[in-house]
Structures are given as C-alpha cells and as structure tokens.
Known about the structure:
The chain folds into two domains: 10-336 and 358-385, no CATH class; 401-568, Glutaredoxin (3-Layer(aba) Sandwich), CATH 3.40.30.10. Helices cover 56% and strands 8% of the residues. The protein has 20 helices and ten strands. The chain has a six-stranded mixed sheet. The longest helix has 30 residues, at 10-39. Residues 340-357 have low confidence and may be disordered.
Amino acid sequence: xxxxxxxxxxxxxxxxxxxxxxxxxxxxxxxxxxxxxxxxxxxxxxxxxxxxxxxxxxxxxxxxxxxxxxxxxxxxxxxxxxxxxxxxxxxxxxxxxxxxxxxxxxxxxxxxxxxxxxxxxxxxxxxxxxxxxxxxxxxxxxxxxxxxxxxxxxxxxxxxxxxxxxxxxxxxxxxxxxxxxxxxxxxxxxxxxxxxxxxxxxxxxxxxxxxxxxxxxxxxxxxxxxxxxxxxxxxxxxxxxxxxxxxxxxxxxxxxxxxxxxxxxxxxxxxxxxxxxxxxxxxxxxxxxxxxxxxxxxxxxxxxxxxxxxxxxxxxxxxxxxxxxxxxxxxxxxxxxxxxxxxxxxxxxxxxxxxxxxxxxxxxxxxxxxxxxxxxxxxxxxxxxxxxxxxxxxxxxxxxxxxxxxxxxxxxxxxxxxxxxxxxxxxxxxxxxxxxxxxxxxxxxxxxxxxxxxxxxxxxxxxxxxxxxxxxxxxxxxxxxxxxxxxxxxxxxxxxxxxxxxxxxxxxxxxxxxxxxxxxxxxxxxxxxxxxxxxxxxxxxxxxxxxxxxxxxxxxxxxxxxxxxxxxx
Length: 569
C-alpha cells in the first residue's frame, strides 16, 4: 500500500476523538461510582476456574488485535484516504452484487469521513477492551457475538470479501482476509471451556488456518492469476518492498523479488505445494505440533514478504492475515489443560481452583470497555445523520490551500455577452477563476454550479464575488458556445458570472500563466484542470482548491467554498 495519504482531516479527527474520550471518562467515572457504592465490598464469593490456556491465548490476542486495529484507524490519513486508497481500487472491478452492497457505505464514509472514522475507532477499541476483560457470562458472550458480526461486516465492506473476487487474489497478500479470521476467532471463543480442554477447539483453530492454506494453494495455482509467469510473484514482492516498510525489512523482500523471475514456475510450484501439504495436515489433524510449527513459519514468511507486516504505509487498517493465522495456531497448540467446572454448585476438584470475590477493577474495566463499544460509537454516529459538511470536500480534495499573495496574471478575453473582459476589470471583488469546457456534460456543469451555489449562499454579500470561467475548448470557443452553457445551466441570473473565451493562442497564454495545461484527445472530452483559484479584491492570489467535481459531495464543496469566501469578505 502506498505510503502517506491525505491527512487534511487529521486535526478534525483528533479533536473529535479527544472530546469523545473526555465524555467517556466522565460518564464511566459516574457509572463506576454508582456501581461500586451499590455493590459494596461484601457478598458471597464465587468459584473461579482458570481459563484454558489456548482460549486465553486467543482471547488476549483477539482483544489486542481489535485495539491495534482501532488505533490504526485513527491514523492521520484515515478519514480522507480510507475509501480512495483501501476500498475504491478493488470496488471498481468488483462484481455487481458486491458493488451494490459496499457502495452505499463507501458513499456514507465519503460524505461524513470524520464521523465514520470515529465510529470505527471506538467500535474496535471497545471490542478489544471488552474481550480483554473476559468473563463467561451472557454479557461476555454478547461481546463475542458483536465481535464476529463486526468482523463479518469489515470482511465484506472493508476487505471486499477478502479480495476473493479479484482474479489475482493471493494468500501471500492476505486472501481470504484477516477479518474472516477474526470471525473464526470470535466463534471459537464462544465454545464452552470443555471444548478447549478436550482439544476440540484447538483442532478447529488449526483446521481453520489449514483451510486458508489449501484455499491459498488453489488461488496461487490458478492460471488466470498469472503467478506462473515471471511477473507474478515479482509484482507481489516488489510491491511489498516499496509499500512503506522500513529499509532493513524491505531489503530481503527486494532480494527475493529480484531472484524470483528467473525461476518463476519453480517458485510458485514450491509455494503451492507447501501450502497444500501443510494445509491438508492442519485440516486433517496429523502431527499437530509439527504442522503447527510449519504453519507458523509459513505464516511468518507470508506476513513479512507478502504483506509487509500489514501496518506500514500510513493507511494500514490491520496487521493482515499472517499474524492472525499465527495467533490462531498458537491458540490451537496442544497446551496442558486443567479441569473445568461442572454444572453443579460444587467446584471442580483441582488445586488450581480458587474461591474469590469479583474484584472492583473488573467492574471498572468492564464499564470502560462497554462505554467504548456502545456509548462512544452512538455519540460519534450522530455525525452520520447530519447534513454533509465541508469536511467531506476536504477529505476528497485536500481542502483549501492558502498561498503567498501574488499578483493575478493580466489577460483580456471575451465574455459571454460579447464584450472584452480583462482580469483587472474584476478588481474590487473576490474572484474565483476556473477552467471549463462548454461542451462538457459531467464535471464542468457540476463544478460551475457548485461555485454558483457557494456564491448564492452568501446572501447579500454575493454581489462582492465574481466567478470567471475560462473556456479551454479549442473548437467550441465562440461567444455563442459560452453563452449557451451559461443559459442552459441556469447561470445567467448570477450577476457575478463570467464565462470568457478567446483564440487558442489567447487561452493557451492564460493557462500557461496559471501553470496549467489541457489535453485534447481524438475521441472524448477534453482533459483540463479543475482547480479553483481565489483572488482578493486587490487582485492578489489568496488560495486554491482542487475540486474533484464529485456529485456526491456537492454540499460539502459548496460549504467549503462558501466558508473560504466568508473568511475573505
């Protein structure tokens, strides 16, 4: 995954998370005080039985993973870059049914990026804390059910069913998805303690990882994936090496990537055979210790060379499936076990059993965990119900960028009324400059109307703002062309609207003065900049905005542009 990402919303995200954290502390403190006063320090003690080792390994691992995922979701680039960099690339080629499921959620995220990210952060941190608190009662089981449900949602929406619909899906890069393994882990933790003591749960944990190995062997062997070619494994390894991992970690990956093309077929055959043999051994339960060790080694290789440890690059959402598989194998290790409690009131006959009272710290930890899991996502989720804000446009475009005041280029073109129009004629007003094509039927009308709506939103102050659109179409560049665009898109009633045109040489000089250019294909619409330039009353440049003309984010762009205009009026 490419490093970096759009961090324009980092400040807004951290501001929201901090005040929600303050709310958590206040509410949790009040609840804990009430609970402890009512509970007191007396009461009948209960029998406590040690948790089976494998279950404890898996519970602590899953809880820690959810917390790590929540913290990764709070990275600076996440609100703005999660959908464009994580979901959109795969969604573009997804089958229709998957697109229909995922697209509404991706649009919701784009329209409310900070609120959506905050909800995700708190759900995952809350799940992690609640699972770490542990317990075997109804509440603890409900948390595990919630963990399985949320992981399934993440698997479908966030991981696009683990990338399995991609023809180039590979076990090396994480298929069938870390979130699917979270589902498995949550369900295993729902099994009674007897299943862990008897080894059933451990066999299922090993078998689940083995099944991913077998599936990985199939994916790696499919001819359509291209992994038998010299570029197949090379593409995966080289992509990992440049994906933001530290240099000492990347060096062995790059060395392997360089060596693979020479022996592409053999390299892939070895990988397929190892995955198939070890996977079958884990599924069938043969030589559990040996196969578990082999599986851990294979997973470590895939986690390093194919997944780059999952967390680097600025937009990693989890450590990826390699680490989760390792933790499942560790939980499925044939650990020595202790006896479990029976259904009677008597404790099991076991020296490890102790008689104790529930401790206050467990109550406090439980309140904090459930507040993160329930209260804060509800509070953060209120932002998803409100109108689209300027944050949506900031997340999409990077926001308004203030620039050093420089004089506007001086040029003379012809307005839609047929009269000469010079840039200097607009002095005394704030002026928005944009480049449009009068024959364009998608982004140009949208961008023009976003600017017009932003100016109209100023009310009485709208007369202090002009919009100067420059016609960049070298064929449709007459006064009639820009006048028709103005009329057809309802812009002729806006006094400050100017759509200017000129010869190819004149417009080319204007584009060059702004450091812009256009591309004119043989077929299709002209490619031109969608940058909006704002000039002050004295003609000096104040700021720029790279508007992507996203129809779903029109309200956000209008709010963003209006806010910038108000700041300079």
